[in-house]
Amino acid sequence: MIPLQEIRQFIVDKTKANAARFGDKLPHCADEDNYNFVDNCFWVGGFWTGLNYLCYEMSGDQSFIDNARRSKHRFAKRLYDDRHTTDHDLGFLFSLSAVADYKLTRDAESRRIGIDAANTLADRFNEKGRFLQAWNVWTPGDPFSEENRGRLIIDCMYNLPLLFWAAEETGDSRYRDIAIAQADTCSTTIVRPDFTTFHTYLFNPETGDPIGGRTFQGYADESCWSRGQAWAIGGYTHAYRYTGDRRYLEIARRCADVYIERLEEDLIPMWDFTFQGDKDGEPRDTSAAAVTAASLLEMASHMDETESAYYKDLATRMVNNLYSFYSTKDEPGHEGLLKEATSHKPQDSGIRSSLIYGDYYFAEAVARLQGQTVIYW
């Protein structure tokens, strides 16, 4: 096994060098050596700020907090000025920016922004269907876009911590009630009886009646997109952490076991589990592996000694393999931490690339293994 100190130093050094180049910009995807940037945060902006907060915790270097705060104006503009573009990914955006800042520094403005983001997320709740509307109607009249009025997606399970945090912070149970309703609805729709997952699920937005599962980033409606399965593992684990409801921990465990059964020998999944065994040269997804490693470590902290040791050992080996075989440790000019991630295979976007969320979760897993992080989620 590679010493964790070596992996940690790699993360800290590369992030510090990147911050000097990025300024207040928010990276998304590096198809080659250099990251491209998103102006309005997209859904990924929080992962860069979160990565800097993790590096602050791992190093004690105040400059990482300064780096994260440079982009604060972009998050504020998205939340207050461009509200028509916000969607369910407010959790990804603000748990790892405003909420992380508040948890680390007790900054009052960051707390206010985090709660305002939670309010905006709660406003997306569909009372009839008991779910948070994931996406907006991007193109009125377009059939797929119109379906978004009644669409939830598995990714949203990782956005619920923003609502749970707001409930604890303010004492207003409305946030918690919405998060629980979303988790419960997802558990009987997106999570299939065999504990694989759909990517998205459609409802009649007027009546709340379920329609059926659909994919957008997976191979097919009935397939199991590996990063979606990873979102389920972590999302339900965090739902358990906030509620103590054992059903959620059991869902997380069952989803994790399904994921583990379908892994390649080096513990890095194909982009969709339809392609087990690297069929026809289909790509892997190191970002799914990183999300899963961080999620398994959280899950292990809630289990008995035997199960905890099993999942922690597995996550440790995932981190080791990511660093040994898929990192840029020998490529100082490459801005990403991990290679061979898959953003959106059906749209041929971000294939065999570095993705900022893969980098973030890789760093979160390392920080967890060293016991050096507060929980931003």
Question: How does this structure look, described?
Answer:
This protein has 377 residues and is mainly α. The protein has one domain: Glycosyltransferase (Alpha/alpha barrel). It has 14 helices and ten strands. A hairpin with a 6-residue loop joins strand 7 and strand 8. The chain is globular and about 55 Å long. The mean pLDDT is 97. One of its GO terms (molecular function) is hydrolase activity. InterPro entries: 6-hairpin_glycosidase_sf, 6hp_glycosidase-like_sf, Glyco_hydro_88, UG_Glycosaminoglycan_Hydrolase. It comes from Paenibacillus glycanilyticus.
- What gap, in angstroms, lies between the N and C termini? 28 Å
> What is the CATH architecture term?
Alpha/alpha barrel
Number of separate structural domains: 1
- Assembly annotation: single chain
CATH class: Mainly Alpha
Class from helix and strand fractions: mainly alpha
* Count of alpha/pi helices: 14
GO molecular function: hydrolase activity
Keywords: Hydrolase
Protein name: Glucuronyl hydrolase
Family: Belongs to the glycosyl hydrolase 88 family.
